[in-house]
Structures
1.
Amino acid sequence: MVIASNGGGVLYVADWGGAIHRSRSASLDDAEFDKLADDLPQFLDHIRRCVVSFVETGATGDL
């Protein structure tokens, strides 16, 4: 199930076990995904850390 997008076409999906994966490209044709978090709370914490880092340093995080 798609749960988020970065606005540029990269998708974040949840698998049946609850793990969150990020698409490697903006295309769903032959899309490949990398595991980003074990569950939704871990994914949301990762987003929070990226936002805090951006506010403090102006650098975008690795999301």
2.
Amino acid sequence: MGTWLEGLFGRGRPRTADETRLERRVEFSPEERAVLLVGILDDPAAREDEKYDAAMYLEDFPGPLVESGLIRTIRAEDFTSVLAQLCAASLACIWARQDRIDRDFFQELHRTALDEVLGVLGARAPHLIPTMDGGN
């Protein structure tokens, strides 16, 4: 699976001996890549390392589908797992690039997922971090 997942992003990359013919031919649009990556997060049969890679790659695909997939995973992981942290970091990167946050979900964040979001926003877009009184 690692070769296939890397293939989602590797146009022009060196080919490996274990690729199938289909993997060599298929090229995906950014929208298709985002759907496939969110699908990996949602797939109970996906390996942990595949989910980690998908969570990290998703920071490059802003949009409602990606954000909802990241949020869903963070909640499902109870805001504490390594996967939740990776999803939180990707979500914060998207927010920083788009210069906005989802205030409702931000208020819901806690534990290590909140720490991850605050770390990314603190470094990239500190003005997005809401103040204690709810303002920004």
